[in-house]
Amino acid sequence: MAEANWYVVHTYSGYENKVKANIEKTIENRGLQEEILEVRVPMEDVVEVKNGAKKVSQKKLFPGYVMINMVMNDDTWYVVRNTRGVTGFVGPGSKPVPLTEAEMKPLGIKKDVVSVNFAEGDMIVVVAGAWKDTVGAVQKMDYQKGTATINVELFGRETPVEISFEEVRRVD
Questions:
Q1: Contact predicate 4/37, CB 8 Å
Q2: Looking at residue 127, what is its pLDDT?
Q3: What integer pLDDT is reported at residue 110 of this predicted model?
């Protein structure tokens, strides 16, 4: 079986959730669960302050676009392309182009298994970047983004700084 990749589909504005639902219904009806693995409308949490009250709401990260993890073949291409609300795949001409690893990483789509030798509460030293040679305790770890948050002293105050896992090592 061919490898599944992430593709971006352009939709009419405001139709992203309808397109997602329609594709998922077609997958179920045609038995394409092995070929079209996942359909996503990327969302982000946005904090809005109205009348002094904070309210967290979801906002579309890319309005007018839906992301699909699928095995590209004539059948899956036809199903997605002919879904109501879809205007086409993103790519030159009519040829869909899969997203690269570098394009997917900031979206948090591909979950690389990251193993690090430190945890929250451990002391680490920054070995690269702007904070090189800074030592701090790990306050928070974000495995999806591949970062650790440490407190550093900046202008006489403790300030949280997010550092990539690749830029730190545990203090032994």
A1: yes
A2: 87
A3: 56
